[in-house]
Amino acid sequence: MLKELEKVKDSILIKGIKTQELSSMLGCLRGVIKKYDKGETVISEGDKLNKFGLLIEGKLQVVQYDYLGNKSVISVIEPKQIFGEAFAYVNKNSSLDVEAIEKSKVLFLDSDKLSTPCEHCCTFHKQLVKNLLFIISNKNVNLTQKIECMSKRTTKEKLLTFLSLESIKNNSKEFTILLDRQALADYLGVERSAMSAELSKLRKDGIIECEKNWFKLL
Amino acid sequence: MLKELEKVKDSILIKGIKTQELSSMLGCLRGVIKKYDKGETVISEGDKLNKFGLLIEGKLQVVQYDYLGNKSVISVIEPKQIFGEAFAYVNKNSSLDVEAIEKSKVLFLDSDKLSTPCEHCCTFHKQLVKNLLFIISNKNVNLTQKIECMSKRTTKEKLLTFLSLESIKNNSKEFTILLDRQALADYLGVERSAMSAELSKLRKDGIIECEKNWFKLL
DNA sequence: AAAAGTATGTTGGAAATCCAACAAGAGGAG
DNA sequence: CTCCTCTTGTTGGATTTCCAACATACTTTT
Q1: In this complex, is the C-beta atom of A156 within 8 Å of any C-beta atom belonging to chain B?
Q2: Which residues of B80-119 are buried (b: 16+ CB within 10 A; e: fewer)?
Q3: Which of A19, A131, B79, B158 has the smallest number of CB atoms closer than 10 Å to its CB?
Protein backbone atom coordinates (compact mmCIF):
# COMPACT_ATOMS: atom_id res chain seq x y z
CA MET A 1 0.00 0.00 0.00
CA LEU A 2 2.85 2.31 0.83
CA LYS A 3 4.28 1.79 -2.60
CA GLU A 4 0.98 2.84 -4.12
CA LEU A 5 0.87 5.95 -2.02
CA GLU A 6 4.31 6.97 -3.17
CA LYS A 7 3.00 7.15 -6.72
CA VAL A 8 0.92 10.14 -5.72
CA LYS A 9 3.26 11.73 -3.19
CA ASP A 10 3.24 15.01 -5.11
CA SER A 11 -0.55 15.24 -4.96
CA ILE A 12 -1.90 18.36 -3.30
CA LEU A 13 -3.36 16.31 -0.47
CA ILE A 14 -0.10 14.84 0.77
CA LYS A 15 2.25 17.52 -0.45
CA GLY A 16 4.76 18.50 2.21
CA ILE A 17 4.55 15.24 4.08
CA LYS A 18 7.82 13.42 4.56
CA THR A 19 8.20 10.03 2.94
CA GLN A 20 8.99 8.40 6.27
CA GLU A 21 5.70 9.72 7.67
CA LEU A 22 3.53 8.22 4.95
CA SER A 23 3.41 4.83 6.56
CA SER A 24 2.17 6.04 9.93
CA MET A 25 -0.26 8.26 8.10
CA LEU A 26 -1.81 5.27 6.39
CA GLY A 27 -2.31 3.58 9.72
CA CYS A 28 -3.59 6.67 11.44
CA LEU A 29 -6.14 7.42 8.72
CA ARG A 30 -7.06 3.77 8.24
CA GLY A 31 -6.05 3.78 4.62
CA VAL A 32 -7.63 1.14 2.41
CA ILE A 33 -6.95 0.53 -1.24
CA LYS A 34 -9.70 -0.68 -3.52
CA LYS A 35 -9.52 -1.62 -7.17
CA TYR A 36 -12.21 -1.09 -9.77
CA ASP A 37 -12.64 -2.36 -13.28
CA LYS A 38 -13.82 -0.12 -16.06
CA GLY A 39 -17.52 0.56 -15.59
CA GLU A 40 -17.65 -0.37 -11.92
CA THR A 41 -19.34 1.90 -9.41
CA VAL A 42 -17.11 3.50 -6.79
CA ILE A 43 -19.74 5.51 -4.93
CA SER A 44 -23.49 5.24 -5.34
CA GLU A 45 -26.06 7.92 -4.79
CA GLY A 46 -27.30 7.59 -1.24
CA ASP A 47 -24.07 6.15 0.17
CA LYS A 48 -23.06 7.36 3.59
CA LEU A 49 -19.43 8.41 3.34
CA ASN A 50 -17.03 8.35 6.26
CA LYS A 51 -14.08 8.07 3.94
CA PHE A 52 -13.01 10.07 0.96
CA GLY A 53 -10.99 8.86 -1.99
CA LEU A 54 -7.60 9.68 -3.45
CA LEU A 55 -7.28 8.34 -6.98
CA ILE A 56 -3.95 6.57 -7.44
CA GLU A 57 -4.32 5.38 -10.99
CA GLY A 58 -7.02 5.19 -13.63
CA LYS A 59 -9.83 7.61 -14.27
CA LEU A 60 -13.19 8.23 -12.62
CA GLN A 61 -16.30 10.12 -13.53
CA VAL A 62 -18.67 11.93 -11.21
CA VAL A 63 -22.16 11.63 -12.64
CA GLN A 64 -25.60 12.72 -11.69
CA TYR A 65 -29.09 11.69 -12.67
CA ASP A 66 -31.71 14.41 -12.73
CA TYR A 67 -35.42 14.15 -11.95
CA LEU A 68 -36.04 12.70 -15.40
CA GLY A 69 -33.24 10.18 -15.11
CA ASN A 70 -30.97 11.97 -17.55
CA LYS A 71 -27.33 11.30 -16.85
CA SER A 72 -24.84 14.15 -16.83
CA VAL A 73 -21.14 14.15 -16.12
CA ILE A 74 -20.23 16.59 -13.37
CA SER A 75 -16.49 16.11 -13.45
CA VAL A 76 -13.68 13.74 -14.30
CA ILE A 77 -11.25 12.64 -11.60
CA GLU A 78 -7.61 12.19 -12.62
CA PRO A 79 -4.89 10.52 -10.56
CA LYS A 80 -3.74 12.52 -7.49
CA GLN A 81 -7.13 14.15 -7.13
CA ILE A 82 -9.48 13.51 -4.24
CA PHE A 83 -13.23 12.99 -4.38
CA GLY A 84 -16.14 12.52 -2.01
CA GLU A 85 -14.67 14.82 0.64
CA ALA A 86 -17.54 17.29 0.56
CA PHE A 87 -20.16 14.69 1.41
CA ALA A 88 -17.88 13.08 3.97
CA TYR A 89 -17.49 16.31 5.92
CA VAL A 90 -21.09 17.47 5.77
CA ASN A 91 -22.18 14.07 6.99
CA LYS A 92 -24.66 13.82 4.23
CA ASN A 93 -25.43 10.96 1.92
CA SER A 94 -23.90 11.34 -1.49
CA SER A 95 -26.22 12.77 -4.12
CA LEU A 96 -23.80 11.80 -6.86
CA ASP A 97 -22.48 8.63 -8.40
CA VAL A 98 -18.81 7.98 -9.03
CA GLU A 99 -17.93 5.43 -11.72
CA ALA A 100 -14.64 4.09 -13.02
CA ILE A 101 -14.16 4.86 -16.70
CA GLU A 102 -10.81 3.08 -16.67
CA LYS A 103 -9.40 0.32 -14.52
CA SER A 104 -8.62 2.26 -11.35
CA LYS A 105 -7.00 2.11 -7.94
CA VAL A 106 -8.34 4.25 -5.11
CA LEU A 107 -6.96 4.93 -1.65
CA PHE A 108 -9.71 5.65 0.84
CA LEU A 109 -8.90 7.66 3.95
CA ASP A 110 -11.03 8.11 7.03
CA SER A 111 -12.35 11.66 6.99
CA ASP A 112 -12.90 11.82 10.76
CA LYS A 113 -9.41 10.58 11.55
CA LEU A 114 -7.97 13.26 9.35
CA SER A 115 -9.82 16.13 10.96
CA THR A 116 -9.27 14.86 14.50
CA PRO A 117 -5.55 14.74 15.22
CA CYS A 118 -4.62 11.73 17.31
CA GLU A 119 -3.15 12.00 20.79
CA HIS A 120 0.38 12.00 19.46
CA CYS A 121 -0.27 15.18 17.50
CA CYS A 122 1.57 13.70 14.54
CA THR A 123 3.10 16.48 12.54
CA PHE A 124 1.65 15.24 9.29
CA HIS A 125 -1.82 15.89 10.59
CA LYS A 126 -1.25 19.61 10.55
CA GLN A 127 -0.08 19.47 6.98
CA LEU A 128 -2.94 17.24 5.88
CA VAL A 129 -5.53 19.54 7.38
CA LYS A 130 -3.92 22.52 5.68
CA ASN A 131 -3.81 20.71 2.37
CA LEU A 132 -7.39 19.60 2.66
CA LEU A 133 -8.58 23.08 3.53
CA PHE A 134 -6.70 24.36 0.53
CA ILE A 135 -8.29 21.82 -1.80
CA ILE A 136 -11.82 22.39 -0.59
CA SER A 137 -11.47 26.16 -0.51
CA ASN A 138 -10.05 26.09 -3.97
CA LYS A 139 -12.99 24.12 -5.27
CA ASN A 140 -15.15 26.68 -3.62
CA VAL A 141 -13.48 29.56 -5.41
CA ASN A 142 -13.69 27.74 -8.72
CA LEU A 143 -17.36 26.91 -8.28
CA THR A 144 -18.08 30.52 -7.42
CA GLN A 145 -16.32 31.67 -10.56
CA LYS A 146 -18.26 29.24 -12.67
CA ILE A 147 -21.47 30.57 -11.19
CA GLU A 148 -20.32 34.09 -11.93
CA CYS A 149 -19.99 33.16 -15.60
CA MET A 150 -23.18 31.15 -15.80
CA SER A 151 -25.32 33.79 -14.15
CA LYS A 152 -24.75 36.23 -17.00
CA ARG A 153 -27.76 36.31 -19.26
CA THR A 154 -26.25 36.26 -22.74
CA THR A 155 -23.63 34.04 -24.29
CA LYS A 156 -21.55 37.11 -25.10
CA GLU A 157 -21.47 38.19 -21.47
CA LYS A 158 -20.74 34.67 -20.31
CA LEU A 159 -17.80 34.46 -22.67
CA LEU A 160 -16.43 37.85 -21.73
CA THR A 161 -16.77 37.12 -18.04
CA PHE A 162 -14.93 33.84 -18.47
CA LEU A 163 -12.20 35.36 -20.62
CA SER A 164 -11.79 38.27 -18.26
CA LEU A 165 -11.30 35.88 -15.33
CA GLU A 166 -8.77 33.84 -17.30
CA SER A 167 -6.94 37.01 -18.20
CA ILE A 168 -6.72 37.92 -14.52
CA LYS A 169 -5.54 34.43 -13.59
CA ASN A 170 -2.81 34.57 -16.21
CA ASN A 171 -2.00 38.14 -15.41
CA SER A 172 -2.03 38.98 -19.10
CA LYS A 173 -4.36 39.97 -21.91
CA GLU A 174 -3.06 36.99 -23.82
CA PHE A 175 -3.46 33.41 -22.67
CA THR A 176 -4.39 29.87 -23.62
CA ILE A 177 -7.19 27.89 -22.02
CA LEU A 178 -7.44 24.18 -21.26
CA LEU A 179 -10.97 23.70 -22.57
CA ASP A 180 -11.89 23.01 -26.15
CA ARG A 181 -15.00 24.61 -27.64
CA GLN A 182 -17.39 21.87 -26.55
CA ALA A 183 -16.00 21.81 -23.01
CA LEU A 184 -16.15 25.59 -22.80
CA ALA A 185 -19.76 25.58 -23.96
CA ASP A 186 -20.62 22.97 -21.33
CA TYR A 187 -18.81 24.97 -18.69
CA LEU A 188 -20.76 28.11 -19.54
CA GLY A 189 -24.00 26.21 -19.99
CA VAL A 190 -24.66 27.20 -23.59
CA GLU A 191 -24.84 25.64 -27.02
CA ARG A 192 -21.49 25.03 -28.70
CA SER A 193 -22.61 26.28 -32.11
CA ALA A 194 -24.20 29.42 -30.69
CA MET A 195 -21.06 30.08 -28.68
CA SER A 196 -18.90 29.57 -31.72
CA ALA A 197 -20.98 32.11 -33.60
CA GLU A 198 -20.68 34.53 -30.72
CA LEU A 199 -16.91 34.12 -30.67
CA SER A 200 -16.82 34.98 -34.35
CA LYS A 201 -18.86 38.09 -33.71
CA LEU A 202 -16.58 39.17 -30.87
CA ARG A 203 -13.66 38.71 -33.21
CA LYS A 204 -15.33 40.64 -36.01
CA ASP A 205 -16.21 43.45 -33.63
CA GLY A 206 -12.58 43.74 -32.63
CA ILE A 207 -13.18 42.81 -29.00
CA ILE A 208 -11.01 39.71 -28.96
CA GLU A 209 -8.59 37.74 -31.06
CA CYS A 210 -8.54 33.99 -30.80
CA GLU A 211 -7.44 30.84 -32.47
CA LYS A 212 -8.03 27.41 -31.02
CA ASN A 213 -7.13 27.63 -27.34
CA TRP A 214 -5.34 30.95 -27.63
CA PHE A 215 -7.12 34.18 -26.75
CA LYS A 216 -6.24 37.84 -26.63
CA LEU A 217 -8.43 40.57 -25.17
CA LEU A 218 -8.23 43.86 -27.03
CA MET B 1 -14.01 40.52 23.44
CA LEU B 2 -15.02 37.33 25.19
CA LYS B 3 -18.44 38.80 25.85
CA GLU B 4 -18.86 39.48 22.16
CA LEU B 5 -17.87 35.96 21.27
CA GLU B 6 -20.45 34.53 23.62
CA LYS B 7 -23.14 36.24 21.57
CA VAL B 8 -22.36 33.84 18.74
CA LYS B 9 -21.47 30.74 20.73
CA ASP B 10 -24.12 28.71 18.92
CA SER B 11 -22.65 29.54 15.54
CA ILE B 12 -21.61 26.57 13.47
CA LEU B 13 -17.97 27.59 13.67
CA ILE B 14 -17.65 27.41 17.43
CA LYS B 15 -20.38 24.91 18.14
CA GLY B 16 -19.26 22.23 20.56
CA ILE B 17 -16.57 24.38 22.17
CA LYS B 18 -16.83 24.77 25.92
CA THR B 19 -17.41 28.25 27.24
CA GLN B 20 -14.29 28.06 29.38
CA GLU B 21 -12.22 27.33 26.28
CA LEU B 22 -13.38 30.37 24.34
CA SER B 23 -10.93 32.68 26.01
CA SER B 24 -7.85 30.63 25.20
CA MET B 25 -9.18 30.15 21.72
CA LEU B 26 -9.26 33.89 21.18
CA GLY B 27 -5.64 34.13 22.22
CA CYS B 28 -4.57 31.13 20.22
CA LEU B 29 -6.22 32.33 17.02
CA ARG B 30 -5.23 35.96 17.59
CA GLY B 31 -8.81 37.13 17.63
CA VAL B 32 -9.37 40.78 16.80
CA ILE B 33 -12.68 42.60 16.78
CA LYS B 34 -13.30 45.38 14.30
CA LYS B 35 -16.31 47.63 13.98
CA TYR B 36 -17.74 49.02 10.78
CA ASP B 37 -20.31 51.68 10.09
CA LYS B 38 -22.98 51.22 7.48
CA GLY B 39 -21.40 51.51 4.05
CA GLU B 40 -17.84 50.86 5.17
CA THR B 41 -15.68 48.37 3.35
CA VAL B 42 -14.66 45.27 5.29
CA ILE B 43 -12.63 43.52 2.59
CA SER B 44 -11.52 45.03 -0.70
CA GLU B 45 -10.86 43.23 -3.92
CA GLY B 46 -7.17 42.41 -4.05
CA ASP B 47 -6.72 42.14 -0.28
CA LYS B 48 -4.44 39.41 0.92
CA LEU B 49 -6.32 37.54 3.64
CA ASN B 50 -4.61 35.73 6.47
CA LYS B 51 -7.66 36.04 8.63
CA PHE B 52 -11.28 35.22 8.05
CA GLY B 53 -14.28 36.88 9.64
CA LEU B 54 -17.06 35.78 11.96
CA LEU B 55 -19.90 38.29 11.95
CA ILE B 56 -21.03 39.05 15.50
CA GLU B 57 -23.66 41.65 14.81
CA GLY B 58 -24.93 43.68 11.89
CA LYS B 59 -25.16 42.67 8.28
CA LEU B 60 -22.64 42.44 5.45
CA GLN B 61 -22.84 42.09 1.71
CA VAL B 62 -20.44 40.24 -0.57
CA VAL B 63 -20.30 42.09 -3.86
CA GLN B 64 -18.52 41.75 -7.11
CA TYR B 65 -17.79 44.05 -10.01
CA ASP B 66 -17.67 42.45 -13.46
CA TYR B 67 -15.54 43.43 -16.44
CA LEU B 68 -17.91 46.29 -17.22
CA GLY B 69 -17.96 47.54 -13.66
CA ASN B 70 -21.46 46.33 -12.96
CA LYS B 71 -22.00 45.58 -9.29
CA SER B 72 -23.74 42.40 -8.25
CA VAL B 73 -24.50 41.04 -4.81
CA ILE B 74 -23.14 37.54 -4.35
CA SER B 75 -24.45 36.91 -0.88
CA VAL B 76 -25.54 38.50 2.36
CA ILE B 77 -23.77 37.65 5.60
CA GLU B 78 -25.87 37.38 8.74
CA PRO B 79 -24.58 37.19 12.31
CA LYS B 80 -22.89 33.88 13.24
CA GLN B 81 -21.80 33.31 9.67
CA ILE B 82 -18.19 33.35 8.55
CA PHE B 83 -16.75 34.94 5.41
CA GLY B 84 -13.46 35.24 3.60
CA GLU B 85 -12.34 31.74 4.59
CA ALA B 86 -12.08 30.46 1.02
CA PHE B 87 -9.59 33.12 -0.02
CA ALA B 88 -7.71 32.81 3.25
CA TYR B 89 -7.09 29.10 2.74
CA VAL B 90 -6.23 29.20 -0.95
CA ASN B 91 -3.74 31.95 -0.22
CA LYS B 92 -5.17 34.03 -2.96
CA ASN B 93 -6.09 37.67 -3.01
CA SER B 94 -9.76 38.29 -2.63
CA SER B 95 -11.64 38.79 -5.87
CA LEU B 96 -14.66 40.04 -4.00
CA ASP B 97 -15.58 43.05 -1.90
CA VAL B 98 -17.32 42.80 1.44
CA GLU B 99 -19.27 45.83 2.61
CA ALA B 100 -21.23 46.59 5.76
CA ILE B 101 -24.88 47.29 4.98
CA GLU B 102 -25.58 47.84 8.67
CA LYS B 103 -23.40 48.93 11.56
CA SER B 104 -21.47 45.73 12.21
CA LYS B 105 -19.03 44.00 14.50
CA VAL B 106 -16.67 41.38 13.12
CA LEU B 107 -14.33 38.96 14.88
CA PHE B 108 -11.31 38.14 12.76
CA LEU B 109 -9.47 34.88 13.38
CA ASP B 110 -6.10 33.85 12.04
CA SER B 111 -6.67 31.18 9.41
CA ASP B 112 -3.20 29.66 9.75
CA LYS B 113 -3.43 29.40 13.51
CA LEU B 114 -6.70 27.57 13.18
CA SER B 115 -5.43 24.96 10.77
CA THR B 116 -2.14 24.46 12.60
CA PRO B 117 -2.85 23.20 16.10
CA CYS B 118 -0.46 24.68 18.64
CA GLU B 119 1.98 22.57 20.64
CA HIS B 120 -0.51 22.11 23.44
CA CYS B 121 -2.92 20.35 21.10
CA CYS B 122 -5.78 22.28 22.64
CA THR B 123 -8.94 20.25 22.38
CA PHE B 124 -10.90 23.09 20.84
CA HIS B 125 -8.65 23.00 17.79
CA LYS B 126 -9.98 19.63 16.76
CA GLN B 127 -13.52 20.87 17.02
CA LEU B 128 -12.78 24.08 15.14
CA VAL B 129 -11.18 22.24 12.27
CA LYS B 130 -14.13 19.89 12.08
CA ASN B 131 -16.57 22.76 12.13
CA LEU B 132 -14.66 24.65 9.49
CA LEU B 133 -14.47 21.62 7.23
CA PHE B 134 -18.19 21.21 7.67
CA ILE B 135 -18.92 24.82 6.76
CA ILE B 136 -16.72 24.88 3.68
CA SER B 137 -17.85 21.46 2.48
CA ASN B 138 -21.41 22.53 2.95
CA LYS B 139 -20.90 25.64 0.86
CA ASN B 140 -19.38 23.36 -1.70
CA VAL B 141 -22.42 21.13 -1.84
CA ASN B 142 -24.72 24.11 -2.08
CA LEU B 143 -22.72 25.71 -4.88
CA THR B 144 -22.75 22.43 -6.76
CA GLN B 145 -26.51 22.21 -6.43
CA LYS B 146 -26.93 25.74 -7.66
CA ILE B 147 -24.81 24.90 -10.68
CA GLU B 148 -26.91 21.81 -11.25
CA CYS B 149 -30.00 24.02 -11.48
CA MET B 150 -28.39 26.75 -13.55
CA SER B 151 -26.89 24.41 -16.10
CA LYS B 152 -30.32 23.31 -17.29
CA ARG B 153 -31.20 25.02 -20.53
CA THR B 154 -34.82 26.00 -20.02
CA THR B 155 -36.56 27.82 -17.20
CA LYS B 156 -38.94 24.90 -16.79
CA GLU B 157 -36.07 22.48 -16.27
CA LYS B 158 -34.30 24.85 -13.92
CA LEU B 159 -37.42 25.14 -11.82
CA LEU B 160 -38.11 21.42 -11.75
CA THR B 161 -34.51 20.66 -10.85
CA PHE B 162 -34.63 23.15 -8.00
CA LEU B 163 -37.98 21.93 -6.73
CA SER B 164 -36.91 18.33 -6.98
CA LEU B 165 -33.82 19.06 -4.87
CA GLU B 166 -35.90 20.91 -2.31
CA SER B 167 -38.31 18.01 -2.19
CA ILE B 168 -35.43 15.66 -1.45
CA LYS B 169 -34.03 17.97 1.22
CA ASN B 170 -37.39 18.13 2.92
CA ASN B 171 -38.02 14.47 2.40
CA SER B 172 -41.51 15.27 1.15
CA LYS B 173 -43.40 16.21 -1.99
CA GLU B 174 -44.70 19.21 -0.09
CA PHE B 175 -42.48 21.97 1.27
CA THR B 176 -41.97 25.68 1.63
CA ILE B 177 -38.93 27.56 0.37
CA LEU B 178 -37.11 30.53 1.82
CA LEU B 179 -36.82 32.50 -1.41
CA ASP B 180 -39.40 34.84 -2.83
CA ARG B 181 -39.99 34.93 -6.59
CA GLN B 182 -37.34 37.52 -7.32
CA ALA B 183 -34.73 35.74 -5.20
CA LEU B 184 -35.57 32.41 -6.80
CA ALA B 185 -35.23 33.91 -10.27
CA ASP B 186 -31.84 35.36 -9.31
CA TYR B 187 -30.79 32.03 -7.89
CA LEU B 188 -31.70 30.20 -11.09
CA GLY B 189 -30.33 32.96 -13.27
CA VAL B 190 -33.54 33.76 -15.14
CA GLU B 191 -36.03 36.58 -15.49
CA ARG B 192 -38.59 36.82 -12.74
CA SER B 193 -41.51 37.45 -15.06
CA ALA B 194 -40.60 34.61 -17.39
CA MET B 195 -40.20 32.32 -14.39
CA SER B 196 -43.54 33.39 -13.03
CA ALA B 197 -45.15 32.55 -16.34
CA GLU B 198 -43.45 29.18 -16.35
CA LEU B 199 -44.70 28.45 -12.85
CA SER B 200 -48.23 29.18 -13.99
CA LYS B 201 -47.79 26.80 -16.89
CA LEU B 202 -46.47 24.05 -14.64
CA ARG B 203 -49.49 24.57 -12.43
CA LYS B 204 -51.90 24.53 -15.36
CA ASP B 205 -50.29 21.35 -16.70
CA GLY B 206 -50.86 19.66 -13.37
CA ILE B 207 -47.17 19.16 -12.64
CA ILE B 208 -47.03 21.21 -9.46
CA GLU B 209 -49.21 23.09 -7.04
CA CYS B 210 -47.90 26.23 -5.43
CA GLU B 211 -48.90 29.34 -3.59
CA LYS B 212 -46.40 31.89 -2.38
CA ASN B 213 -43.57 29.95 -0.77
CA TRP B 214 -45.45 26.67 -0.60
CA PHE B 215 -44.95 24.02 -3.25
CA LYS B 216 -46.24 20.54 -3.94
CA LEU B 217 -44.92 18.19 -6.60
CA LEU B 218 -47.60 16.04 -8.22
C1' DA C 1 -2.60 8.93 -49.96
C1' DA C 2 -7.22 7.72 -48.93
C1' DA C 3 -10.50 7.17 -45.36
C1' DA C 4 -12.46 7.94 -41.12
C1' DG C 5 -12.86 10.65 -37.25
C1' DT C 6 -12.68 15.03 -34.56
C1' DA C 7 -12.93 19.98 -33.76
C1' DT C 8 -14.62 24.25 -35.23
C1' DG C 9 -17.37 27.62 -37.83
C1' DT C 10 -21.77 28.88 -40.29
C1' DT C 11 -26.57 29.25 -41.10
C1' DG C 12 -31.79 29.47 -40.88
C1' DG C 13 -36.02 28.53 -38.81
C1' DA C 14 -38.27 27.09 -34.36
C1' DA C 15 -38.49 27.93 -29.65
C1' DA C 16 -37.46 30.24 -25.46
C1' DT C 17 -35.99 34.20 -22.99
C1' DC C 18 -35.68 38.94 -22.06
C1' DC C 19 -37.64 43.31 -21.28
C1' DA C 20 -40.89 46.76 -20.18
C1' DA C 21 -45.15 47.79 -18.87
C1' DC C 22 -49.25 46.97 -16.61
C1' DA C 23 -52.83 44.48 -13.47
C1' DA C 24 -54.18 42.41 -9.20
C1' DG C 25 -53.69 41.40 -4.51
C1' DA C 26 -51.65 41.67 0.23
C1' DG C 27 -49.97 44.22 3.93
C1' DG C 28 -48.51 48.47 6.44
C1' DA C 29 -48.70 53.39 7.77
C1' DG C 30 -51.09 57.29 8.49
C1' DC D 1 -60.49 53.53 5.29
C1' DT D 2 -57.24 55.29 1.88
C1' DC D 3 -52.82 55.64 0.17
C1' DC D 4 -48.60 53.61 -0.67
C1' DT D 5 -45.44 49.94 -1.27
C1' DC D 6 -44.20 45.32 -2.27
C1' DT D 7 -44.93 40.94 -4.39
C1' DT D 8 -46.67 38.19 -7.93
C1' DG D 9 -48.84 37.21 -12.33
C1' DT D 10 -49.72 38.44 -17.29
C1' DT D 11 -48.80 39.86 -21.88
C1' DG D 12 -46.59 41.07 -26.46
C1' DG D 13 -42.85 42.31 -29.25
C1' DA D 14 -37.71 42.37 -29.67
C1' DT D 15 -33.87 39.64 -28.93
C1' DT D 16 -31.36 35.55 -28.14
C1' DT D 17 -30.73 30.83 -27.92
C1' DC D 18 -31.46 26.30 -29.42
C1' DC D 19 -31.28 22.76 -32.72
C1' DA D 20 -30.08 20.32 -36.70
C1' DA D 21 -27.66 20.22 -40.57
C1' DC D 22 -23.84 21.05 -43.25
C1' DA D 23 -18.92 23.01 -44.64
C1' DT D 24 -14.13 23.13 -43.66
C1' DA D 25 -9.83 22.14 -41.70
C1' DC D 26 -6.92 19.19 -39.13
C1' DT D 27 -5.56 14.35 -37.13
C1' DT D 28 -5.20 9.73 -36.97
C1' DT D 29 -5.64 5.31 -38.98
C1' DT D 30 -4.94 2.16 -42.39
Answers
A1: no
A2: bbbbbbbbbbbeeebbbbbbbbeebbbbbbbbebbbebee
A3: A19
